[in-house]
Design a protein that fits this description.
Blueprint: E1 7-9, E2 16-18, H1 19-50, H2 59-92, H3 101-124, H4 141-170, H5 180-210, H6 219-253, H7 260-273, H8 290-325, H9 334-337, H10 344-367, H11 370-376, H12 381-408, H13 417-443, H14 466-499, E3 508-509, H15 522-525, H16 535-562
Antiparallel strand pairs: 1-2, 1-3
Bound molecules: protoporphyrin IX containing FE (HEM) and copper (II) ion.
Copper (II) ion binds near residues 280 and 281.
Length: about 575
């Protein structure tokens, strides 16, 4: 079968871009950045209101802005970018044309219309229901319809991804097994299908209620099914950003995974166990048995955690093996000291990986333990935890990948390279601090999503210890620094795409060509393992284990003091 299209081989990376796939990746990535920009502007309102000394917005505006911030960031920024990643992992890494370009464009249009419709609904002011939109709170019907259209578009994009895998296999565009990055993206897409269907099961009836066709959606059922969407979508993010970590290890170091099979097994664990782990969002809910909660969160959740631990060992391990092979063998850590710290693609990924593991991972396991969950339920600890996962982990990883894509996909030289060099440090470390102080304030009991933590002037007014105000002040300050870091990213990427010096597009051919072994990204496009000799990574893993045990112990101790049984 012949399809009229062209393939461009990038002279800087050796990657091959099919014309349609290339435009689709660009438009999805650019739209994602626009959503990030909007979400980031809204973050200013959110942090400046939660900073007690500033307390900027009025209550109704705050809840509106918070709703839009959550949705624009966690749904629109992340998922538009993920669609670009799916097309990259299928079409580009397999050197295959995109299966059905027209349908992929239709998917994009649906997603765009949905995203705009949802934002309009929120800013009209009748839909400040937060991103979880729990019933019986009701938003305007166009709020739900927007999300449903967006989700249908995303589902179609997943179908295009699967279709492209099929075309690649049929047209034999790759040899042997698909590369690990494509495999990881495939798990992300499988999880996405489950996630989007769960979303449909619960949001379609809620939409019917909003237009008066149905008079009641049960709140408990809503929460249970909503979290099959809400939690699983985080696992899409994790599978996607971990796939990018493997890709960046391959691109920056020529690194192969320590063991392809073990890494693939870890991705499969995500598919098997993460939906069950959704129960950790329901630990404080009535109507669900304790046994069910404990089995899900104390057993099944750990299999998903195990998978993350395997990747966390495997990715730095792969980098270490590759660096040692280049002769960086002195001591335990020469491989790490001599890593390309000035390259924002590498530094972004490494800062994301460490922060995701230490801050997001450890706090997540703590929160997912039924008894300990009581300490932090509905406090600002919760957004502290998930800014460590979705911002430090996923968002920073996507930022890092963008720096690689500017010359490769957008064919532009990056503007402001000096700023780009420090951007991952500025954004990453301010977010580390931001997450930590939010968790600190949450441990003291400060609520999440609350316009006025002290209820001042009300019968239930509450005097917090000074430390709680101090930490919320630090949330404000570090949040603003992080927003500056995020603005730097938007400035660099948008500026480069429009004003960067144009770079050579490379040779164009009517057919795909096989991967050249000399291509700088060959390791990302092929299958194979590197072996297990990574003593430095092992030491880092032990350090992680000790941190985890100590933090876990501290929280049990704290619980025992709050909850005296003797
Ligand atoms: C510079 C960057 C950011 C800052 C300073 C920031 C700050 C905040 C703050 C202070 C809250 C409110 C906590 C509360 O009152 O309960 C919040 C909520 C939230 N943020 Fe961010 N954020 C940033 C970036 C992001 C990104 C990149 C994402 C997602 C990828 C994200 C997702 C969310 C979500 C989902 C919520 C919860 C909304 C809700 O409770 O319904 N944020 N953010
Ligand atoms: Cu979860």
């Amino acid at each position: 079968m012949t399809v009229q299209t062209t393939y461009r081989t990038c002279p800087r990376s050796g990657l091959q871009f099919e014309a349609q796939a290339e435009s689709l990746m660009k438009i999805n990535a650019v739209t994602a950045v626009v959503a990030l920009l909007v979400g980031g502007l809204l973050a200013i309102g959110v942090v400046l209101t939660r900073w007690p000394a500033v307390h900027w917005l009025a209550a109704d505006t705050f809840y509106m802005v918070l709703t839009a911030h959550g949705i624009d960031m966690l749904i629109f920024w992340i998922i538009f970018f993920e669609v670009a990643v799916l097309y990259f992992a299928s079409s580009t890494l397999l050197r295959c044309r995109i299966a059905t370009p027209k349908i992929a464009w239709a998917a994009y249009v649906l997603m765009l219309v949905g995203a705009v419709m949802n934002n309009v609904a929120v800013f009209q002011g009748e839909s400040s229901v937060m991103m979880t939109s729990y019933v019986p709170m009701m938003a305007h019907w166009s709020f739900y319809l927007g999300i449903i259209l967006f989700a249908v578009g995303a589902l179609i994009a997943c179908a295009v991804f699967f279709g492209t895998l099929v075309v690649a296999k049929r047209e034999k565009t790759y040899e042997g097994s698909v590369p690990l990055v494509t495999f990881g993206a495939t798990t992300a897409a499988i999880i996405a299908v489950f996630t989007l269907l769960s979303g449909a099961i619960i949001l379609v009836p809620t939409f019917f209620q909003s237009i008066g066709l149905l008079d009641h959606v049960d709140p408990l059922i809503y929460r249970t099914i909503w979290w099959a969407l809400g939690h699983s979508s985080q696992q899409i993010n994790v599978a996607a950003h971990i796939s990018i970590w493997y890709a960046v290890a391959a691109i920056a170091f020529g690194a192969k995974p320590m063991s392809e099979r073990v890494s693939r097994g870890a991705f499969l664990l995500y598919i098997l166990f993460l939906q069950l782990a959704s129960a950790h969002h329901l630990l404080a809910d009535p109507g669900i048995s304790t046994e069910w909660k404990v089995v899900n969160t104390s057993y099944f959740m750990y299999f998903a955690v195990l998978a993350s631990m395997i990747h966390a060992l495997s990715i730095p391990g792969a980098m270490e093996v590759a660096q040692r092979a280049k002769g960086y063998n002195k001591g335990l850590f020469e491989w790490l000291r001599k890593a390309p710290w000035g390259n924002p693609t590498f530094s972004g990924v490494f800062i994301a990986l460490v922060g995701f593991g230490f801050l997001g991972g450890i706090s997540g396991v703590m929160m997912g333990t039924e008894q300990l969950n009581l300490l932090i339920h509905n406090t600002i600890y919760v957004p502290g935890h998930f800014h460590a996962t979705v911002v430090i982990g996923t968002t920073l990883t996507f930022m890092a990948l963008t720096y690689f894509l500017i010359p490769v996909l957008f064919k532009r030289e990056m503007i402001l390279p000096g700023l780009a060099k420090i951007q991952p440090y500025l954004f990453g470390f301010s977010m580390y601090f931001f997450s930590l102080v939010m968790m600190g304030a949450g441990t003291l009991g400060v609520s999440r999503r609350h316009w006025d933590m002290a209820f001042s002037g009300h019968a239930l007014a509450y005097e917090w210890p000074g430390a709680a105000y101090l930490m919320m002040g630090l949330v404000g300050i570090s949040g603003i620094v992080a927003i500056v870091g995020g603005a730097a990213y938007v400035l660099i990427t948008v500026g480069s795409v429009f004003f960067g010096k144009k770079l050579d597009a490379g040779a164009v051919s009517p057919r795909f060509t096989p991967v050249s072994r000399a291509a700088p990204t060959a390791a990302a496009q092929t299958y194979g393992s590197a072996g297990f000799v990574a003593p430095g990574t092992f030491v880092l893993a032990m350090f992680f284990l000790v941190s985890f045990v100590l933090y876990y112990f501290v929280n049990w101790k704290y619980l025992s003091q709050l909850w005296g049984l003797s």
